[in-house]
Write a structure and sequence with these properties.
Layout lengths: L2 H4 L11 E4 L2 E4 H5 L3 E6 L6 H12 L1 H6 L2 E7 L3 H15 L7 E3 L4 H5 L14 E6 L5 E7 L7 H17 L13 E3 L5 H8 L4 E4 L2 E4 L2
Parallel strand pairs: 3-4, 4-5
Antiparallel strand pairs: 1-2, 3-6, 6-7, 8-10, 9-10
Amino acid sequence: MDTITQMPRIGDNAPDFTAVTTTGMLNMSTYGKGSWMVFFSHPADFTPVCTTEMMGFAMEKTFFEENNTKLLGLSIDSIHAHIAWVNAVHEKTGVLFEFPIIADIDMSVSKTYGMLQPGESETAAVRAVFFIDPEQTIRLIMYYPLNVGRNMDEIKRALLALQTASTHKVACPLNWKPGEKVIVPAPKTLEALAERKNSDLEMVDWYLAKKSL
């Protein structure tokens, strides 16, 4: 079976693992139990784009805590390289990476999650982001190449959209942001259609209706 067919997909249970991290040994399912998780990989320690990204995650600590979300990083580096990098960034910028960073030196976790993509690199993980819900289900996956940094605003927006959709059983339209109207699932019976026509929903058409939360 090739690497592509083994890659986790949206709706799959997040593969469990135990790994060495900058905060000690970590079991993924235990760490994420009862919380959302943003699990992301970076190509290498002591690299410029990765440093800006990791700082971005660290500086959003309060946002993720307030939204019941844990962060988990990974790269194919040793634990000593991780510790040295975390320390160097803290000394130079004052920003501390307090979330765990997996030392995936044997690439086992990277391979399990499809973070190694040979067309990009066989020894460095691409910039993958997995959004995992409290039931350990993968809800969204983002992939970026080695030379393009992620968009933190979109990561935050996507997380809130996923949480809103899950909590209220709705969908979020293009460019949705918190406070904006959401989409109500389309009716599946003629009776439900009649109810919708008599509702106070904002009707674009029978299948496209919006409401405020």
